[in-house]
Design a protein that fits this description.
The structure is a homodimer of 307-residue chains.
Chain A lengths: L1 E5 L3 H12 L3 E5 L3 H10 L1 E5 L4 E3 L2 E3 L8 E6 L6 H8 L3 E9 L6 H9 L4 E14 L2 E14 L6 H12 L4 E3 L3 H22 L10 H20 L9 H11 L6 H7 L10 H11 L4 H18 L2
Parallel strand pairs in A: 1-2, 1-6, 2-5, 3-9, 6-7, 7-8, 9-10
Antiparallel strand pairs in A: 3-4, 8-9
C-alpha cells in the first residue's frame, strides 16, 4: 500500500515507521525540517518497547512531491487538521482513504470539508510514543488501535488497512462503534488533561485532592450529557470511574496538555473540553465546568506561548 | 487608644504605622522576626503616596507581652484568622473591639469562635500597600475604608475608631451595610483572582479573552445568587460590569492571588471562591464555575508550595 503520514511527530513517525518496516511504501510528511532531514540521511530510529531499530523511510516537508497514495494517515495536532487535509489533496485520488488517528473531536468535519466525508475512516489508538530528537522516537506503549467506518459498516478498504496495521505489529481491531471509542478516549482526556495543565500535577496526583476529583467528575458528566444527546454509545458504563482508573493507571505521567503548556506550545483544548462546550451550546446542554477549564487553559496558553 | 495590629504585613504595618504616627499607642504583632526586629531597631519606614517617613512604633512576635488594648486590628491572611484570634485573647478585656479589615468571607465566624461576636467590627479597605523588605512598606493606594457594626447600628465605639482612623489620614466612613460592602469586594476578587492565578495574566489581560470574560461573569453570577439567598444587599447594581471595570482600572496589576502562587505561598482561595462554594452548598445553590476555579487553584497551590 502507498501511504502518506501527514504529521510525523512521535505518533505519526511510529505508525509510519512500523508500516514501512513491514514493507509498505510510506512517506512521512512534516514541517519540522531537521526531523525530515535526519530521517532521509540516517533513517528513522525507533527505540523502546518494540525493540531498537533503524528504518529506511521516505520523508519530506512537501506533500506536493509525494504523488497519489492509497492511504493518508492524518496525525497532526487537531488545530492543524484543516490545513493538513487541504495540503494532502494533491496526494489523493477518488480511492484514497483519509484515516484520522488524532485525539479529540472535530477532526472528521475538518477533513470532510477538504476531502469529503466518504473518504474518511476514523481511528483511535492507545499506542504511546515520545519524540527524542530529530529522526528518533521512543516507543513507550503498545495499547490497542481501533479503526472504523463512519457509517459503522465493514468494508474492503478498512479490512485492508486493518490487515496492514496488524502485519506491521500495530494491534488493530475494526470497530462498528468508532465514535463511541473516540468519545470514550475524549472523556478521559476531558477529565484529566486541563486539570493537570492548570496545576502542574501528574495524572495520579489529581486524585489526592477531593475538590479536583469532584471537578473531574463534573467535567466528565457534562461531556456525557452532550454525548448522550448526540446519541453516542460510550464504551464503558461508568465514565467517571473510568477516568479515575486511567488517572491511577497512568499516575506518574505528565499529560500531553501539561507538556504542551510547559513547553510553551498550543494545546488541544479546543478539540477536547472546547468541543464539549461548543457542542453543548449547539444542542442546549450547559457545560459550566468545561467552560471554566477551557477559559483558564486558553489564558494560560496565551501567557506561555506569548500569543 | 491602645491598639494591637495582629498581622503586620504590608496592610497591617500601614494601618498601624499611620495610627502610631497620629499619636495612638500601637503595637505591631507578626511572626516574621526580621520585620519586627527592623521596626524596633530603626522604626517603620513608609514610602509612597502619603510621603516618605520613619515612624516609631512598638513591634513584637509575642502577643502575650502586649497587655490589654482597646482595639485589636486583625490583618492576618484569612487562613490564619482562627489562630490569630485565639492568640489575641490575652490582650482583650470585655471592652476590647476586634476589627477585621481582612479580605474574604468567614473571618467574622472564626474571630467570633474565639472572642464572641459582640466584640467584632468588620471593615473593608481599598488602601494599597506593598512589603518592600523588613521594616519597610510602600503605600501604593489611598482608597476609602469603611467599617461597620455587624448589627448595622451606629455605636460610640465605632465612631471612636472611625475618628482615630480619619485623624491618622485613613479616610474612613461608617457603614450601616458593612456586609454589603464586604461582599461587593469579595465579588470582584471572585471574578478576578483565581483566573489571574491560574493563567499568569494581569488583571486587564483577562478582558482580552472572550472565554475568560464569560467565566468571570458566571463566577460572579453564582456568587450573586448565594449573596441574594443570604439577604446581602450589594453596593452596585451590576456586579459583573463592576468586575470588568475593576479589571480595567487595575489592568497592569498582578492580583494578590497570582503573587501568592508565584511566590509559592498559600492563597486566600478558601475565603473567596471557596466560601462561595461552601455557602452555596449549605443553602442549595449550585456553583460549578467556582468549584472548578477552587479545585484548580488548590491543585496549583499544592504544586507551588510543595505541600
Amino acid at each position: 500500500m502507498k501511504i502518506a503520514v501527514v504529521g510525523a511527530g512521535a505518533m505519526g513517525s511510529l505508525f509510519g515507521g512500523l508500516l514501512a518496516d513491514a514493507g509498505e511504501d510510506v512517506t512521512l510528511i512534516d514541517v519540522w525540517k531537521e526531523h525530515v532531514d535526519a530521517i532521509n540521511a540516517r533513517g528513522l530510529r525507533i527505540k523502546g518497547i518494540s525493540g531498537d531499530r533503524t528504518i529506511e523511510v521516505n520523508s519530506t516537508t512537501d506533500p506536493g512531491k509525494v504523488g497519489p497514495v492509497d492511504l493518508v494517515i492524518i496525525f497532526v495536532k487537531s488545530y492543524d487538521t484543516a490545513e493538513a487535509a487541504r495540503d494532502a489533496l494533491p496526494m489523493a485520488s477518488d480511492e484514497t482513504v483519509f484515516l484520522s488517528l488524532q485525539n479529540g473531536l472535530g477532526n472528521i468535519d475538518k477533513i470532510a470539508d477538504a476531502a469529503g466525508k466518504h473518504r474518511i475512516i476514523r481511528g483511535v489508538t492507545a499506542q504511546g510514543s515520545t519524540m527524542m530528537g530529530p529522526g528518533e522516537i521512543y516507543h513507550a506503549g503498545l495499547g490497542p488501535t481501533v479503526i472504523g467506518e463512519l457509517d459503522e459498516t465493514s468494508t474492503e478498504r478498512i479490512k485492508r488497512i486493518g490487515k496492514a496495521f496488524n502485519h506491521a505489529g500495530i494491534h488493530t481491531e475494526i470497530s462498528s462503534n468508532i465514535m463511541g471509542a473516540l468519545w470514550s478516549k475524549v472523556l478521559v482526556n476531558v477529565g484529566i488533561n486541563p486539570l493537570t495543565a492548570l496545576t502542574g500535577l501528574r495524572n495520579g496526583e489529581l486524585l489526592d485532592h477531593p475538590e479536583i476529583r469532584q471537578v473531574m467528575k463534573r467535567a466528565v458528566e457534562e461531556a456525557m450529557m452532550v454525548a448522550q444527546s448526540l446519541g453516542i454509545e460510550m464504551e464503558f458504563d461508568n465514565p467517571v470511574e473510568k477516568v479515575y482508573e486511567v488517572a491511577e493507571a497512568t499516575a506518574a505521567n505528565r499529560s500531553s496538555m501539561l507538556q504542551d503548556v510547559e513547553r510553551g506550545r498550543k494545546t488541544e483544548i479546543d478539540a477536547l473540553n472546547g468541543a464539549i462546550v461548543e457542542l453543548g451550546r449547539q444542542i442546549g446542554v450547559d457545560t459550566p465546568v468545561n467552560e471554566t477549564l477551557v477559559a483558564a487553559v486558553k489564558g494560560l496558553e496565551s501567557v506561555r506561548t506569548g500569543a
